[in-house]
## 1
Amino acid sequence: MKISKVLGYQVLDSRGRPTVAASISLTDGTTHTARVPSGASTGVHEAKELRDIGGEYSEVFYAGLSVWQAVENINRVIAPCLVEELIDLAAVDNLLVDLDPSADHAKLGANATLAVSLAASIAAAHSQNRSLARYFQPESELNIPMPMVNILSGGAHANEAMDIQDLLIVPIGATSFTQALSWIVAIRETAAELGRMSGFVTNLIADEGGLAIPFDSVEKACQFVINAIEACGLKAGDQVSLALDVASTQFFQNGVYNLRNAKKIFSSEQFVTYINDLVSNYPIVSIEDPFAEDDWITWQKFVQIAPKKLQVLGDDLLTTNLTRLNRAIDEKSANSILIKANQNGLVTSTLNVLKQAKANNFKTVVSARSRENEDSWLADLATGWAAGQIKVGSTHGSERNSKWNRLLELEVIEETKFLNPYI
Ligand code: PGA
Ligand code: ZN
């Protein structure tokens, strides 16, 4: 089947900011569309999305954040090379690399390349009469990932209500995704009720659908979530564990970790002790970005002393980048990687990062961004790639629930098993 048309255009994300959509039409008359997400706590080593700010395309009404330049790159540069070609994801991604060989996709814009690459995946799956998950794994049972779900938000996602960005739960005792999600919703709603009873506003939500309840210490926030878990009749640690996204790059300044709400400043060495105390005193199974994106030596020191079972997860550290992942493997700086397609810029090279991680016994967590949209391809990628885990935010907001709902759907319509990477 051939490509008959490629169209880029600007749409809005969940925070009302412009983002790129790409539609690929095929010669059978069907059209396949993907929209790209964007981050708020973006790492400096991520692929570069193009924003029009300051340039000739800049629009005052979108505060310069429009993406018309990226859209033009799809319509003027990429589309003419793809029309009349057979639909083939590897060929599309190779072409995108030929057109922009820069490692960070800065010329075309990673938002332009990823939109086309994703639309090509969805169109290629259709041309084989498969779902996107099945396109990546045609045979045998699909692995539905373990969800890691935001309950409390802080940092850049919630006006610094807490110093850390996410306090999440992982339903490690659930035996199906359907059961896992029912526990999560119960805990999320119970947490809201407990927060409301303590006098906080809990019907206004943070960027990823979590609760923005102010806490001046991480310990208090952990205890609050444990209370919510136990109020639901579930056992914290046995059935539902905690996970943190510290997003520490956001508060690493002048060589120190500055927890503004806690009013404490730590050297790298002191912060290793602080983080190690946290994961030892609370039922935390995963800790993301405990140290800043270039504080490699501190990551390495922490891995040496951290509990062996703890997932030490690199997001800003690794930015879904093969070179940075290889360094982390060599130096033992982490033992797991967050996989975000838009940090990388292409579907095939994102998958290559995931494969390299797995080949080196790193766990993998496919992740959404804080600025999302209604698409659900992330659920198919996490499943078809057997990532083991998925992180989407909370269970409020259709840009989040479209992914959870797609996993519920996959669990019903496909032959699946629910992966538990924490056993
Ligand atoms: P971001 O946050 O999408 O704002 O970068 C998500 C995360 O840090 O995991
Ligand atoms: Zn993160």
## 2
Amino acid sequence: MTRYADFHRRSIEDRDGFWAEQAALIDWQVPFDQVCDYSNPPFARWFPGGRTNLCHNAVDRHLKDRAAQNALIFVSTETNQERVYSFAELHAEVQRMAASLQALGVKQGDRVLIYMPMIPEAAFAMLACTRIGAIHSVVFGGFASVSLASRIDDAEPTVIVSADAGSRGGKVVAYKPLLDEAISLAAHKPAKVLMVNRGLVPFTPVAGRDEDYAALREQHRHTEVPCTWVDSTHPSYTLYTSGTTGKPKGVQRDTGGYAVALAASMKHIFCGNAGETYFSTSDIGWVVGHSYIIYGPLIAGMATIMYEGLPIRPDAAIWWSLVEKYKVTVMFSAPTAVRVLKKQDPAALKKHDLSSLRALFLAGEPLDEPTAKWIAEALGKPIIDNYWQTETGWPILTICNGVEQAPSKFGSPGKAVYGYNVQLLDESTGEALTEPNQKGVVAIEGPLPPGCMQTVWRDDERFVKTYWSSVPGKMVYSTFDWGIKDEDGYFFILGRTDDVINVAGHRLGTREIEESISSHPAVAEVAVVGVADTLKGQVAVAFAVLKDPSLAATEADAKALEASVMKVVDEQLGAVARPARVRFVSVLPKTRSGKLLRRAIQAVCEGRDPGDLTTMEDPAALQQVKDLVGG
Ligand code: PRX
């Protein structure tokens, strides 16, 4: 047995012994009584009885040895700012933010919604929340008012932290009007909005509700806010993600299990050491940003780069110049970003000294072989694919080079990570597939390891129904991804089993987009599918039936209507969810019982065989789709 196989086996067979050892990687104020309480499956309670604090582990703990070392490196190529915070400075800023939140009435267990661009204050706000036991809920800044409103109503925040604007590709994106609109749409009204004014767009504060952060920060310049020790199982945050239904799910994470899982992953997967620099190009609005811009690197005592801007602006060398300047040892990005860089001159990478960099980790969507080969060659460094989900918070499949160096295989994120008992299940029977190279649903036997979701925020029933009930008679966690495993234990991910799509590494629910398009006054009915795209991995394509078909009678009419449908999606959900095309048909392909045949539409759009169509109501409907996409 290889060292890794043994390590993995022990994590499953001697679960408590294994995780008790990993738990020593973090500080506990009160030691835990038990490693894992799985007396009420599928709800796992990690390290019950223990008391700790995420912010303490990310910040305060390092003051003794590395107060003056870099902690947070903020680089914005949008506003041309660069600012480095040492651990001591980060500690001071987090306390100012924590004191400001407390002054606005935030208490332990309260939710704080963070709707912000990639600026240091967003990191301070997250850390300030976990410092005082408040539960943060970061909403990606690319989401617009309707998306934001549904998250406000679900999280019911006491305070929202926001900013006047973000900036993308040199264009200012005002956040404040979207936030105001979202609050007016939401049934829940936050008591206060804490505004960071970057001076990018003028705005009028709402009297009695909006507070200026600069003023509060000044008042609390010297206020000390000690960490609130919380139970290991205390929720640290919720993060909304898309699923099959239109309503986003609040993935709820604990405190102790998450801190341990991240600390262990920094050691065994990312091989990052204290005093080094980590650069993740994600956004704090996504799970990668939570785990590997903010908490993971800081818990490991590493400096973390927070980058606001595009990968190719001012030029395609920008990321590599940061690697050189800050001696980045570990980098994390998404295949989409690499595909963007691939279109640029590869000389950009060679201009800089990349000798500090040990590996580039990629995740969030399938890593295609040409992209993997191109970047491996261009960088001359190991490229490590890793597969996971918002729900798990850290990798399910990868190569754990910190345990044992192992080769990668093109197209495979690697093997099951320690702590995860990964199975492939037969779709119809739910039986575990034991032979290699059989296609099945990727599933995880409970308990999920530390760091994974505890439940769906305020909806235990939905947690059980959504994730643990897809196999009759068996309680097992479904990832909703298809996969196969080869004879060496390497998995290959083949795409989602549900209606979730992945556009440029952003996870979106097609149902959410359909709901938004349906609100357009001209639209009677719509189907949205994900279609393969060489740059973005997938793009959303919509097929809509109009209430009055004559509205799209001419090509010019159809174009104008398409643009107005896209505008609705932009305004409600955000440009991130905008379909690449909106096509008009007179009828949608459905089964005789009225179910939309999204898979058949998707297959036709991708030039594949749509499969068995015997249950289809009207074959002419699919022909229309074919004619439109030129199939
Ligand atoms: O379909 C899988 C795909 O992205 C989904 C999870 O997206 P999200 O919740 O945004 O979490 C991203 C965390 C990195 C998965 O269900 N996915 C993620 N990583 C990979 C992947 N597909 C193939 N290969 C990957 N490495």
